[in-house]
């Protein structure tokens, strides 16, 4: 086996283990926080944490189950019977089953002296689904949980150890999910080179720095006006859902599950950019950025006209410059990434990597994750080779 391929397989194996461990650590941290809120008599906070966990978990199980039912018959040969699989998803274990399945396939490929084309393609197939589920979990659970915990800290003015654990795991998990999703989509298209180490670090940082001001804005609004944040989210979410519907998404296998996908995308768009339609995305991304920026500015004006201090006594003048500097730095790093570090800036031939199955003569007979391939063509427009089209 070539050293480059073996190194990539080892990296993929480590990433599968890391992704699963990060999910379990974040889950444990949130359950720890919820239990502490109950012990301290903060039942509303505990209920919010558990509600976000529950809604996110249910959505992940539905996506996983629908995709498994839509996959070609006989693709997952080692899969348990249908009733056992349904029970796993009913018990909210479907995502962990996916992670276990991906880990087993990665180990199988790693142990082979010369991995078969089918095993390599099947490993890519599984990793693409896991990356997509991880991204959904990030914006349905991690990002709202991070916003909630920051709002609680801003209200109380003090942080407990378990809250810092939630914050740290959420921040790392969010940026990691965005980077992993971006890399996974590149394995779908043979023309797309993978990110180098420096490019990956910068991509990780600018996503983190641009997402942080939005999370901070919503957290501050929640701390100052806790009774209105649900109305604010619902109002913007309906507008974003209508926008997603206008773009005519076609990702899921049936109309009912397609609406679940659109609702999830609208939740992602509440915090960050996510491309779902074919064609040039620069205009849509700019509209979305201006929309979120305008909403955040309106929230800032609302804070300052009602109160310059948080309930805990922290002045808003301390936090607002932090968000502004983070936003500007994130934009600078994004420009640096697209002008000097984007894979399209390097003209050397693409190496043999995760796209190897697409170059094979038997490509049509190998496992192909068609839903993710369609999404990759939307994410990387064919006529716009120089655009990273990432999450803003």
From TrEMBL:
One of its GO terms (biological process) is establishment of localization in cell. Its main location: membrane. The chain crosses the membrane at residues 12-33, 45-68, 162-181, 201-221, 228-247, 259-277, 289-310, 316-337. It is found in: Cell membrane; Membrane. One of its GO terms (molecular function) is phospholipid scramblase activity. One of its GO terms (cellular component) is plasma membrane. It catalyses: a 1,2-diacyl-sn-glycero-3-phospho-L-serine(in) = a 1,2-diacyl-sn-glycero-3-phospho-L-serine(out). It is a multi-pass membrane protein. InterPro entries: XK-rel, XK-related_scramblase. Keywords: Apoptosis, Cell membrane, Membrane, Transmembrane, Transmembrane helix. Belongs to the XK family. This is XK-related protein.
């Amino acid at each position: 086996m070539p050293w480059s391929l073996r190194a990539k397989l080892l990296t993929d194996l480590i990433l599968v283990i890391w992704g699963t461990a990060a999910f379990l650590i974040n889950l444990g941290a949130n359950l720890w926080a919820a239990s502490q809120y109950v012990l301290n008599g903060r039942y509303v906070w505990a209920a919010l944490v558990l509600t976000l966990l529950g809604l996110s978990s249910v959505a992940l199980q539905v996506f996983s189950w629908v995709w498994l039912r839509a996959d070609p018959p006989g693709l997952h040969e080692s899969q348990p019977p249908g009733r056992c699989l349904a029970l796993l998803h009913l018990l909210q274990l479907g995502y962990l089953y996916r992670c276990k399945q991906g880990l087993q396939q990665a180990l199988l490929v790693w142990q082979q002296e010369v991995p078969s084309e089918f095993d390599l393609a099947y490993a890519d197939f599984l990793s693409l689904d896991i990356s997509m589920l991880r991204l959904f979990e990030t914006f349905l659970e991690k990002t709202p949980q991070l916003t909630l915990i920051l709002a609680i800290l801003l209200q109380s003015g003090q942080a407990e150890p378990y809250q810092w654990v939630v914050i740290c795991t959420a921040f790392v998990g969010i940026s990691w999910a965005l980077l992993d999703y971006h890399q996974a989509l590149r394995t779908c298209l043979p023309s797309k080179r993978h990110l180098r180490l420096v490019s990956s670090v910068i991509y990780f940082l600018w996503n983190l720095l641009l997402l942080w001001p939005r999370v901070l804005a919503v957290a501050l609004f929640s701390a100052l006006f806790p009774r209105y944040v649900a109305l604010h989210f619902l109002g913007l979410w309906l507008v974003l859902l209508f926008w997603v519907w206008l773009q005519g998404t076609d990702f899921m296998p049936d109309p009912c599950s397609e609406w679940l996908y659109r609702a999830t995308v609208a939740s992602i768009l509440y915090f960050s950019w996510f491309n779902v339609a074919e064609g040039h995305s620069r205009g849509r991304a700019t509209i979305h950025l201006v929309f979120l920026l305008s909403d955040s500015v309106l929230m800032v004006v609302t804070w300052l006209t009602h109160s310059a201090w948080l309930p805990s006594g922290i002045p808003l003048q301390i936090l607002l410059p932090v968000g502004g500097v983070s936003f500007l730095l994130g934009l600078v790093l994004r420009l640096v990434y697209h002008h000097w570090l984007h894979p399209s800036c390097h003209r050397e031939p693409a190496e043999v990597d995760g796209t190897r199955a697409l170059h094979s003569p038997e490509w049509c007979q190998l496992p192909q994750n068609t839903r993710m391939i369609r999404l990759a063509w939307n994410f990387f427009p064919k006529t716009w080779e120089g655009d990273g089209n990432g999450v803003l």
